[in-house]
């Protein structure tokens, strides 16, 4: 092995207080240039960039080699730190330079196909193909380090709280529930398959039955879904479970964790406890079970406002008469900002949510302008405006349809408009809990009742009697943690009673035979004494993305797949030898 | 959700100093018995067992419920700690009992199919099927916690040393190198497959090219091999890599880590630096590249001893004339312990290593008894015995054959005999490095040269000139860490030069086309400036097993597979729907 210069500092660390020190650095040449008999090299490692200077006092042989340096050459430098004549305020190390006395060349480099600069706007697929170059960007290394830091603080905290990190298996049983599984053919058991886990849910419940008491794992999970919307085939969960707890215990533990996390990695003190909204309240006020509370624009229900309740305006009338809702939001000061054309665009934007139109009302200094002037008198508009406390200059937008459509449309709209108005402050972190989710929802396609979370969620004790009579009104001991309108995690208290679990399967239309085939081992385990237990899981990728202020989870993963689930660095997936398939007792179709 | 007693203590924590305290406990009924109007319940959680006592002062309703308790019922207890009348010295909590005032029953339990006791010797498959019951054993929970502790200390240490934990992908490219891959059919890319990683080797090298500088990961790895010898389809590595380092840097970092690990989890101070043996020395002295140095019995070469060199004894003669070796070990005081019959058994035991026989020589008070008295005079036996410094009562065992057979046989034999003689002290931890491995070895089947570690290992600088002339004599910058005769980990300095890497592929008979197809992305990456780098990986399962004093890695994993690679808890692998296969563009053969 060739000689290695033993590093004394990282490039990004050097400051004025290092002046006079002899240092050894290793890194990549970010830039080399010659100026007035001197050679300047910007040397980069993961911590930053520092300027290296060669003058004619170094041996000619070294000077010549310094002159031959090109971008991305890998070198080691010995030298002395000194104050820089012309300071560079854009670099943290910009007050100093390293006056080289020796240099070693570890490796040459061809011209890279992408620029190693944070603001390089290379095509995504090019960035993924040359990920090892993309990762040299300071921002990408910062993101990897930040992710590491979050994982570390997470493990520290839960370790202190008596949690045990347990590795659950990656080769598990396929259950045709939920998302699509990735399958792994078994060679030893021909014709049979493992699945890669969508979550460690069943195993963590078994750990509770096994007495592990407090479990945590930062676990790889897999879903073979279409990769729209910044999803990845493999993703990472912070997964945990606790025995002998109720919802308050689980929530309290998480608040302690998140407080610590924000303090340690963000240097931000957040207040606990976080606000709790029931699912019902979240929908009514924000039109969403992931409310963003950094701004107002809360939804108001207009069904019972006399002007609306008695209206002959057909759009409202039809909605009300078919059991739907009329709800609106008030954009303070929005009247000036949104022209008629803008409102048309907003109307377009809510169409994917099912809304066929929006009613708008502008509160003016004197009276109103609105899309429904023909149908409502000024007094009636007063009545509506009063619900919102609307003042002159405000814009009211109203949707009327089935409740779900109204909620989804307005829920989207308020955040969309807040974004347009610049109200989404990246440095503000509003955490809240949404609790008391409905236990079930109606599958719109099949009309069947399905579990809103998963079939192991415990119904609220007081709602259990309704399981038989009115299951859609049963609420669950389920909770989501929401940050700025994004679901960061969620969990529930689980059923630990075999009979109640069997009843849930029955309500979900899962036959006894099917439930035994799929989850028999869990029901069997419950026979032998299961403790009450509950837990929660965070999406780590999304959490890191949110806290790092990034907009794609790909920027917080080392080697993500592209939109076609391919790893462009290593060119996976690929074709394999026929012999391999033969050994696995499978063939291609 | 039903009421939960909020725990104040764990069962195993209570001691005399808690006497008088009101406590709340949750756990499983380990035993219930009635004695003289009192009910005694042994309550168990993961920390241990404590005695709960009910007398008639509790409400009758509670007393009755306590009376109905059976094994593995899950309960909560409120009560007062008091000194126990008849202390139980076998329990850490045996000085106290908890005098119950209230009780809650969380769940009943059927009679479990295995005993929840550390010394339950249930059949392995039964233990795996009811793993959630097996895990209730205190020993199993202790093992899980111990494993957690090792992982935690590992992460703490390397975090302090500036390492970043980076998650490398689980869905990777299949390379028909090394062991058999687990394959994952791609739905989005029909006819193509991912592999599950056998190790993060290539990705960690790419991270170094990407400037990550110091990488660690506790990573799941997969090998579809036959499961003899306590292997598992999925296993866990502590995997790391460093840039700008030589072998001494990597080794020094590990010694710091292992010192810290032994201190923190074993409460043992180990001395650093560890001894380093070259591979050659390890073979010559111990007949193994994983020497156990807790005892003597070192190998001695007899080829050049006059009595042997000139012998007409055909067994030795043939070995020497065909380029083989005559080597032996001396078992101090072994003569009495091993009868003629015992030696016959030892001769049987080395047959799997290729040895066709063993020569034995007993040093007596006066002269020798041996299996070769006919061929060697007493003076000649003196000459042989002198090599070992044999004294009266010692037993010399000699093998002669090809060097590999001699090393393997004697290497096995010395440890086997040490085991029989009770010399393998579980509380002694002899750590050492084996370095300077041969770069290549000859594949006995094909006669081709193959890599001893892997094709990315850097040859020793001074041996590079021999790559062309005498590759089998080239040594590698590779190192294994050995604990008590078991390889706990290993690594190497990697090649970071594209041309040298290409040359290695050439020597290994990998065509340019093949190397580009398999490892092209690594060669491509090396084009753009790769730093010198090296690393190491530990087998975590084996490490935990060794330090926990267990004899199977299954006892330090939560949900291991059985010998047929099945998960008996969840019954994986299993058959899947035809539709699932169709979506994946595969069918069964």
Structural features, described:
The structure is a homodimer of 589-residue chains. With 589 residues, chain A is α+β, with helices and mostly antiparallel strands. Chain A folds into three domains: 16-107, Beta Barrel (OB fold (Dihydrolipoamide Acetyltransferase, E2P)); 141-273 and 483-555, Bira Bifunctional Protein, Domain 2 (BirA Bifunctional Protein, domain 2, 2-Layer Sandwich); 295-424, 2-Layer Sandwich (Gyrase A, domain 2). Chain A contains 18 helices and 23 strands. In chain A, helix 4 (138-160) crosses helix 6 (247-266). The radius of gyration of chain A is 30 Å and the shape is globular. Chain A starts with 21 loop residues before the first strand and ends with a strand. At the A-B interface, helix 3, helix 4, strand 6, strand 7 and strand 8 of A face strand 1, helix 3, helix 4, strand 6 and strand 7 of B.
Looking at the structure, the CATH topology of the largest domain in chain A is: BirA Bifunctional Protein, domain 2
Q: What is the C-alpha radius of gyration of chain A, as a whole number of Å?
A: 30 Å
Q: What distance lies between the first and last C-alpha atoms of chain A, to the nearest angstrom?
A: 50 Å
Q: How many DSSP E strands of chain A?
A: 23
Q: What is the percent of helical residues of chain A? A: 25-40%
Oligomer: homodimer
CATH class term of the largest domain in chain A: Alpha Beta
How many helices of chain A in DSSP terms?
18
Outline the low-pLDDT stretches of chain A.
none
């Amino acid at each position: 092995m060739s000689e290695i210069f033993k590093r004394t500092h990282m490039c990004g660390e050097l400051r004025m207080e290092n002046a006079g020190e002899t240092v050894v650095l290793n890194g990549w040449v970010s830039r080399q240039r010659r100026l007035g008999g001197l050679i300047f090299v910007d040397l980069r490692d993961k911590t930053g960039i520092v300027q290296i200077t060669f003058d004619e006092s170094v041996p000619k042989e070294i000077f010549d080699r310094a002159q031959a340096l090109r971008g991305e050459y890998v070198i080691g430098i010995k030298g002395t730190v000194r104050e820089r004549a012309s300071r560079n305020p854009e670099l943290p190390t910009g007050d100093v330079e390293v006056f080289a006395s020796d240099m070693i060349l570890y490796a040459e480099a061809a011209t890279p196909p992408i620029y190693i600069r944070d603001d390089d706007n290379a095509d995504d697929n090019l960035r993924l193909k040359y990920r090892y170059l993309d990762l040299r960007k300071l921002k990408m290394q910062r993101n990897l380090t930040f992710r590491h830091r979050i994982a570390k603080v997470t493990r520290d905290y839960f370790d202190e709280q008596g949690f045990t990190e347990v590795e659950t298996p990656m080769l598990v049983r396929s259950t045709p529930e939920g998302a699509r599984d990735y399958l792994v053919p078994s060679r030893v058991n021909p014709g049979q398959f493992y699945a890669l886990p969508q979550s460690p849910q069943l195993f963590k419940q078994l750990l509770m039955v096994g007495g592990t008491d407090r479990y945590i794992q930062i676990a790889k999970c897999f879903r073979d879904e279409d990769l729209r919307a910044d999803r990845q085939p493999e993703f990472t969960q912070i997964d945990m479970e606790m025995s002998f707890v109720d919802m308050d215990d689980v929530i309290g533990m998480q608040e302690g964790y998140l407080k610590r996390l924000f303090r340690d990695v963000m240097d931000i003190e957040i207040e606990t406890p976080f606000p709790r909204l029931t699912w019902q309240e979240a929908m009514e006020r924000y039109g969403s079970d992931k409310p963003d509370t950094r701004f107002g624009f809360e939804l108001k229900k207009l069904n019972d406002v006399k002007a609306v309740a008695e209206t002959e305006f057909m759009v409202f009338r039809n909605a009300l008469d078919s059991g739907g809702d009329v709800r609106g939001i008030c954009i303070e000061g929005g009247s000036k900002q949104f022209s008629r054309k803008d409102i048309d665009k907003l109307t377009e934007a809510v169409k994917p949510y099912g809304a066929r139109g929006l009613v708008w009302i502008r509160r003016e200094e004197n009276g109103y302008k609105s899309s429904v002037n023909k149908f409502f008198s000024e007094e009636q508009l007063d009545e509506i405006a009063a619900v919102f406390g609307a003042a002159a200059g405000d814009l009211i937008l109203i949707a009327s349809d089935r409740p779900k459509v109204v909620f989804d449309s307005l829920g989207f709209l308020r955040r969309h408009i807040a974004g347009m108005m610049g109200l989404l402050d990246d440095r503000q972190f509003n955490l809240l809990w949404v609790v008391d989710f409905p236990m079930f929802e109606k599958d719109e396609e099949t009309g069947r009742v399905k579990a809103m979370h998963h079939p192991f969620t415990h119904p609220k004790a007081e709602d259990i009697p309704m399981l038989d009579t009115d299951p859609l009104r049963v609420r669950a001991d389920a909770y989501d943690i929401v940050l700025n309108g994004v679901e960061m995690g969620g969990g529930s208290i689980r059923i630990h009673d075999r009979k109640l679990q069997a009843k849930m399967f029955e309500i979900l239309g899962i036959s006894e035979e099917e439930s035994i085939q799929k989850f028999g081992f869990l029901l069997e385990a419950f026979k032998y004494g299961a403790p009450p237990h509950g837990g929660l899981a965070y999406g780590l990728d999304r959490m890191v993305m949110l806290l790092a202020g990034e907009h794609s989870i790909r920027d917080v993963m080392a080697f993500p797949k592209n939109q076609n689930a391919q790893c462009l660095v290593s060119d996976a997936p690929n074709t394999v030898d026929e012999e391999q398939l033969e050994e696995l007792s499978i063939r291609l179709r």
